[in-house]
Amino acid sequence: MVLGFSFCLSLAACGGGPREYSRASFNGPLQCAPYARAKTGVALYGAAASWWRGASGKYRRTQSPAQGEILVFRSTGRLPSGHVSVVRSTVSSRKILVEHANWEPGRIDRSVPVIDVSRNNDWSLVRVYWAPIKNLGSRAYPTYGFIVPRDIDDIARLQETPDHAM
């Protein structure tokens, strides 16, 4: 029973869209957590927001982004299970490009701009590009920070992992 519940949580919604998407539309077969796990090799499970705590003692956590790291979004009313994205590159101290699944329901998006809008430039609050409007979304989302999944050689190798490896 507990295992089944945990599995359901791992498939919980990871999204961030306008109101025309129902909450159910984010609960399809493509989810952010399994996608990020397949791209980075992390052994973290459960709702995306729980990854931050789950990484304690297993993976290094940081407030500065680098390629291959996982940005962990906190749980909010719009993101009840949180969200995770994989950093593709750092553009500046306040802009990164990520790839993630199901920010827009049922899609994998690559090279998506994420902007740090936190007061202290600590990546605790971000805005994310939203493809349907071809611009940054109007909402700011709180985050925990970045999980460093592996050493740099492993990250480079895992960036080439095909998407169907999930």
From TrEMBL:
Alphabetized SUPFAM superfamilies for the sequence: Cysteine proteinases (SSF54001)
**Occurrences of domain Peptidase C51 (ranges):** 7-127
State a single Pfam family of this protein. Answer: CHAP
Gene3D superfamilies the record matches: endopeptidase domain like (from Nostoc punctiforme)
Database matches in InterPro entries: CHAP_dom (IPR007921), Papain-like_cys_pep_sf (IPR038765)
* Record's protein name: Peptidase C51 domain-containing protein
> What organism is listed for this UniProt entry?
Asaia siamensis
